[in-house]
What we know:
By secondary structure, the protein is an alpha/beta fold. Among the domains are: 25-116, Rossmann fold; 146-312, 2-Layer Sandwich (Dihydrodipicolinate Reductase, domain 2). The chain has helices at 36-45, 60-70, 78-85, 99-108, 123-134, 149-159, 176-187, 321-337, 346-365, and strands spanning 25-30, 50-56, 74-75, 89-92, 113-115, 139-141, 166-172, 195-206, 220-231, 236-242, 254-259, 262-265, 268-274, 277-282, 284-288, 298-304, 307-311, 369-370. The strands form three sheets. A nine-stranded mixed β-sheet has the order 14-13-12-11-7-10-9-8-18. Strands 3-2-1-4-5-6 form a six-stranded parallel β-sheet, with helices on both faces. A hairpin with a 4-residue loop joins strand 9 (220-231) and strand 10 (236-242). The longest helix has 20 residues, at 346-365. It starts with 24 loop residues before the first strand and ends in a 16-residue tail after the last strand. The relative contact order is 0.16. Residues 1-21 have low confidence and may be disordered.
Amino acid sequence: MAATVAGLPAGLSSLDGETEGGGMVRFGIVGSGWRVRFFLRAAQALRGQLEVAGLAARRPQRAAGLVSAYGVPLYRSLTELIEAQRPDFVVTSVSWEANPPIVRQLVEQGLPVLSETPPAGTVEEMHALWTLQEQGARIQVAEQYWRQPHHAARLAFARSGRLGRVSQAQVSAAHGYHGISLMRRFLGIGAELATVSARRFNSPIVKGPGRQGPPSKEEVTDSNQLVAGFDFGDRLGVLDFSSDQYFAWIRGQRLLVRGERGEIIDDRAIYLQDFRTPIEVTFTRHSAGPDGNLEGNYLKGIQAGEQWWYRNPALPAELSDDEIAVADLLLRMAEYVGGGDDAYSLAEACQDRYLDILAAQAAESGQTVKAQHQPWSDALTTSEEM
C-alpha cells in the first residue's frame, strides 16, 4: 500500500513505484536553463526507452529554442504540464531557491521527482524535504558525476578489492557537493561523521572558455580555489577544486585513491597481486570511430588490465561523458519509478550538500567544523552497499 504524503490529493497517481501502462517511460522537465539541454539530449539518444512528455517554463521565450531544437511540448506552468501529460516522473532543473517548493508541489501531485542538485540550499530546507520523504514522497536527485564513465570505471576498480581497504581519496574533478559525492563513494562513507577544515585561495589565470564558448580576447582573471579536508577518523577525504576547471584548457582534473594494497592516480592504477608482485594497469577508453573504424562515433567502455570496468549504457548514441552520465541516471530513474533501486537517493544528496555547507563554514571561519547526525543519516547507504 502506498504511503500517504501530507497534502496529497486523493485519487492522484500513487507512490507504489509502478508506471501507468508500462513500456516506455515518459518524464517532464521544469526549467529552461543551460542544464535542461543535457536531459533533452540524453532522452533524444534513448528514444524507445524514454520520452520527454513536456517542458514547463515560466518564460516561454527562453524555452523557444529548446522546443524547436528537440520537438518537445511547451507548457507555461507545471500544473498545465501535469494535467496534459501526467508523466511518470518530473525532472526539476531550476534555481536553488525555486527547487524546494517545486519539489513539494510535485510530491503533493503524487509524482516521483528527479530533483536538481543540490535538492536544497540550506540545512533547514533539506530537513523539510526529508520530512516529505519520511511521509512517502519519492524524491531522487540528479547527481550524475559518479556515473561519468571515467569515474564509474575507477569506482568499480576500487570496489573490486584490488586496492584493499581504501583509506584516502583526493578529488579534484568537480565542485562542492558533486566532488564530495565522488569522495564519499571512493571512501565508502555513509553516515560517518567528519571533522572539516578548509581554506580558499585566489590566483591569476588567463581566462578560458565558458558556457558561451571560447574567449574573444586575452584576459587575466581570478581562479577561485577551495581546498577542504574531511577527517572521518579512519579515512581521509580531500576536495580541491578551482572555479575554472570545468572548461579551462590549462586546468585539468586529478584523482588519487589510496588503499592498503594499491592506489589509483588519474588514469592508472598499481596494486599488489601478492606482497612481492606489484601490477600496474592503465584505464583505456574504447571508442568506435577512430582510425577509419566505421561503427559510428561513441564510447564503448573502459578497460584496465584484462577486465572492462565500464560499458556505456547509452550505446550507440554520440554523447559526451557528462551526457552519458545523465542518460545513465535517467535510465536508473526509470527503473526506480518501476519499483527498482534508488537512482541517487535524497539522503545521499542531502549529506553531500551538508558536508559542502560545512566546508564553506570552515573556509569562512578558519576553524575546523564538526559534522552532526542529521535526520537522513540512518537512511544513508552503508559502505558495503555503495
